[in-house]
Every structure is written in structure tokens, then in C-alpha cells.
Specification:
Elements: H1 13-28, E1 36-39, E2 47-50, E3 58-60, E4 63-65, E5 76-80, H2 89-107, H3 117-126, H4 135-138
Parallel strand pairs: 1-5
Antiparallel strand pairs: 2-5, 3-4
Helix pairs in contact: 1-2
Length: 141
Amino acid sequence: MVYMRKYKGRLTLGKAKEVMNDFLVENYGIELDIPVEWGIDLERKWGSFLFKEVDQDIKFNGVSYEKGNVLKGSMKIVLNRELIHAKNKDLVNKILKHEALHYAMYKKGVPFDDGDVEFEKEIERKGLVGTRVSRRDLQIK
């Protein structure tokens, strides 16, 4: 069995990124080379893999983009700040890996959105959580 890092103590962005990076390297041979941030506007989500795709051919900051390209520097993973207070660390780790999996599948050119058949199969194969995780499940008061 592959060793999967679990954080101890209070969750920090550094610890979250370590968990996600270890998961990606050990399972997909990919480094997590995008920012991980806390978000305060994630009302019903525990995390989100985000990027900005240009909707028309443009030149931005001296770089030419074709429609559909990802704007350089726009890719990131945003985590709900309330995860800091979760007592169910195993579930938090699964959420972190779920968000990292979006990134891995994006990088590999495989459908990566929640609900995509390939993504959902990989979630199940890795024993991760889907999108319906409650505060009660996480043991957040």
C-alpha cells in the first residue's frame, strides 16, 4: 500500500498542499505546481479547482491566447476556510485529495469535472469522497 500523508494538528495551507502533492506524485507522477488558497466565498463547497479560460483570441500581458486557452497564472485550488475546524481529519484528507484529483485529470487531458464518468470512477477507485460532505460528517461545530 502506498503511504499517504495525513496532517496532524490544525490544518494549514502548507499541510494541505503537502497532502495533495504527495497524493499526486505517488498516484499520478504529477507535482502540485499551482497555488492553494483559503476561500471565504465557498458557500456549499469544501474546495474547488479553478482556472480562467479565455473566450476569444486575445493578447494579455504580452502573451497571445487562443479561445479556450487557460490564462497563465489563473489556475489554483481554493479550500473552504472552515476545514481548519474539522475534527474528522480522515475526511478532510479525502477532500484534499479529491481537489488534487481534479488537477491531475485536467493535466492528463481526462474529463475532470464532478459528475464526469471518468472522474467519478477515479474517485471510487481511490476511495475518495464525492461532493456531498456535511459539516456534521466533518465534525465542524
